[in-house]
Specification:
Elements lengths: L4 E7 L9 H8 L7 H13 L6 H19 L4 E7 L6 H10 L4 E6 L9 H14 L6 E4 L6 H15 L4 H4 L3 E7 L12 H15 L6 E5 L13 H10 L4 E5 L8 H4 L1 H13 L2 E4 L7 H16 L7 H4 L3
Helix pairs in contact: 3-12, 4-5, 6-8, 6-12, 9-11
Bound molecules: ligand FEC.
Ligand FEC binds next to α1 and α10.
Length: 321
């Protein structure tokens, strides 16, 4: 393909200061202001994990490393950009730079491995709207899912094996691996959304790869929107595990790829505290973050999307966003 290639890496976005929490939360809610109590609760969570999260720094670091890896192996340099869904740098603003730089073909990759219309579909919508506002006609290869990428399966397998080393030798033979991902409202089932099936399939693929057949799955980080969310929630699931006599849990947040609020608060604070109350030892796997192995996963996704786009894209779902 001739011309200048670009990659747009996308992630959720994170506020930098307490006063940014309200506008950030309002953006997440599609423009509806949250109550002052809800804002205060969210500010407290950020405060308790040190004021802010490393989500943007990690994403920027992945982008820099990816640009180096891709430009080293391609005949022409590939420029890598970062755009966030709910905070600066917003996807639309990054698209303006992409257009100004004269990129002629863009590959858009969300740093979340599994597809839901509500999550990845929202990123897709932001890209479509951003380009149309700019009146830009750049062809985009939008990667909707990449959890089956062999390098990702290998990386998750490695992180689990390393995670098990956090347990003592006595405990290690008796650890239940629990995969987890961000919950979504149950209504996604009415849309035939593939999110649940992709997460269960992806967990099984990783577990099979390391010959573990005793794994379980729970959801985390459900919102307080009034309607039901996918369950069981990990906090309730710990009660179930306790009643089954489980005393060691390795949580594997397979739906996330870096350290952020849903890891640092929901797992490291809430789940670990609940486990401690129940007398369960809970550790979690490290996140891929900006490791060379993870950069290699995304580089492989990029190359795969150039050679074989059908494996990464589902048009029928895309038409609905
Ligand atoms: O570190 C940070 O500051 C940001 C961490 C963060 C990530 C993340 C990822 C996902 N979310 C997903 C779905 C939803 C839905 C709602 C929702 C709400 C929040 C709130 C915060 C938040 N999310 Fe998030 N999410 C992160 C942070 N998320 C803060 C607002 C307070 C709360 O509800 O806890 C509900 C929206 C509504 O109220 O209408 C739905 C999904 C992902 C994983 C995919 C991705 O990374 O994009 C799905 C990271």
């Amino acid at each position: 393909m001739q011309g200048r290639k670009g990659v747009l890496l996308m992630a959720y976005g994170t506020p930098e200061t307490p006063d940014q929490v309200e506008p950030y939360f309002t953006h997440i809610r599609g423009g509806r202001k949250p109550s002052p109590e809800a804002v205060a609760r969210l500010q407290t969570r950020y405060e308790k994990i040190g004021g802010r999260t490393p989500l943007l720094e990690i994403t920027n670091s992945v982008a820099r490393k990816l640009e180096f890896v891709l430009s080293d192996s391609a005949s022409e340099p590939v420029k890598v950009y970062v755009g966030m869904k709910h905070w600066h740098p917003y996807i639309a603003d990054t698209l303006a730079s992409i257009v100004a730089d004269g990129i002629t073909h863009l590959t858009a990759i969300v740093l979340a491995p599994h597809y839901s219309l509500m999550s990845v579909g929202g990123y897709r919508k932001a890209v479509q709207e951003g380009l149309s506002l700019l009146n830009a006609d750049i062809p985009v290869t939008f990667v909707e899912r990449w959890h089956q990428q062999p390098e990702f399966v290998e990386l998750m397998s490695k992180l689990i094996l390393e995670g098990l080393n956090q347990f003592s030798e006595d405990e290690r033979g008796n650890v239940v691996p629990v995969f987890s991902a961000h919950s979504l409202p149950e209504k996604i089932r009415n849309w035939g959304d593939p999110y649940e099936a992709e997460l269960h399939g992806s967990s099984k693929m990783v577990a099979d790869n390391i010959n573990r057949h005793d794994w379980r799955f729970a959801w985390q980080s459900a919102g307080e929107t009034g309607d039901p969310w996918l369950g069981p929630d990990i906090l309730d699931f710990l009660d179930v595990l306790k009643s089954e006599g489980v005393s060691n849990v390795l949580q594997i947040p397979i739906g996330f790829v870096c350290d952020h609020l849903e890891i640092m608060w929901d797992i490291d604070y809430e789940a670990k505290n609940k486990a401690a109350e129940l007398g369960i030892t809970l550790h979690r796997t490290q996140l891929p973050n900006d490791s060379d192995d993870f950069v290699n996963v995304i580089a492989s996704v990029f190359r795969g999307a150039q050679d074989n786009p059908e494996s990464y894209i589902v048009s029928s779902m895309s038409e609905r966003v």
